[in-house]
Amino acid sequence: MPFFDFRQNNSGGSFDFDADAGISVVVIVEAENEDDANERAESIGLYFGGYGDCSCCGDRWYEVYGSGDKVPSYYGEPIQDYDFEAGFGYKWIKDGPEAYVHFADGKIQGYGLPKKQLG
């Protein structure tokens, strides 16, 4: 099954983060197709249409489209190889994963944890 990635817009100057639900800046969902991915994303807690979002910044979440990726990916790179701190030069979620992958079997895996400081 393909993987579809949802990137959270920094609406209102902040990101929603919910470790229990598996919501961070990036949420990747394994699904049959784009409609299934959008439905699964809503069941996780993502929403579309911008209810309550910042009117100047735009909607927080947008539905996905297309055929998805063969492996969980972000900007075309496998998620386990993506360096979030180098990608934008900044880590948005200081104490948790920058991304969560929601597999079809119900497993949730976080990626992009803060790098350990060398001492």
Structural commentary:
This protein is α+β, with helices and mostly antiparallel strands and 119 residues long. It has one domain. Helix content is 13%, strand content 18%. The strands form 2 sheets. A 4-stranded mixed beta sheet has the order 1-2-5-6. A two-stranded antiparallel sheet has the order 3-4. Strand 5 (99-102) and strand 6 (108-111) form a beta hairpin. The protein starts with a strand and ends in an 8-residue tail after the last strand.
Mass-distribution shape: globular
Q: How far apart, in Å, are the first and last alpha carbons?
A: 42 Å
Class from helix and strand fractions: alpha+beta
Instruction: Kindly report the spatial arrangement of strands forming the biggest sheet.
Output: 1-2-5-6
Estimate the helix proportion, in percent.
10-25%
Percentage of β-strand residues: 15-25%
Main beta sheet strand tally, sense and closure = 4 strands, mixed
How confident overall, as mean pLDDT? 88
Gyration radius from CA atoms, angstroms? 14 Å
Number of helices: 2
The number of domains: 1
What's the count of strands?
6
User: What is the succession of H and E elements?
Assistant: EEHEEHEE
**Low-confidence parts, pLDDT < 50 over ≥5 residues?**
none
In quaternary terms, these chains amount to single chain
